[in-house]
Amino acid sequence: MRLYIKQKVWSFKDRFSIKDDVERDRYYVEGEFFSFAKKLRLFNKDNEEQLYIEQSLWRFLPEYNLYEKGEKVATVKKDFTLFKNNYTILGPDWHIEGSVMAHDYMIKEGDKVIADINKKWLSWGDTYEINIHDEQYVSLLLGIVVVIDAVIAQENPPGQ
Asked: Which of 6, 82, 83, 103 lies at a CB distance of 3.0 to 4.6 Å from 119, suitable for a disulfide?
């Protein structure tokens, strides 16, 4: 399954779509603006909530919890490093390899690639492609990618 997100087109108060390869909206993400912690919700095209994402407050580095049907399924934490942009995924036994900042990375379970994320130039602009190898994890994978993009966007606001 291939899905696409336009790079840095949103803030936490907005709504944006995740499209398929023929530019149809497949999922969308909405942010809640009036809260202390950043909160995001991933919906399918039928407006059914697939994932709830909430930022953990009072952390030195960004940390987000991901919930499916009210149950926490993962935590994504940014790691402290000087020259790399690393993240830890807690919950599933997954890890990230590659360059997150360049949107050229893989989410792996051991040696098995679960998803790969790559920057693409498409008709609707500067976009990155999410190639999901195991569709049973589509919501969780989209949530992880959205969290990572949100952290990158917070750290590198437009115009800086």
From this structure: 103
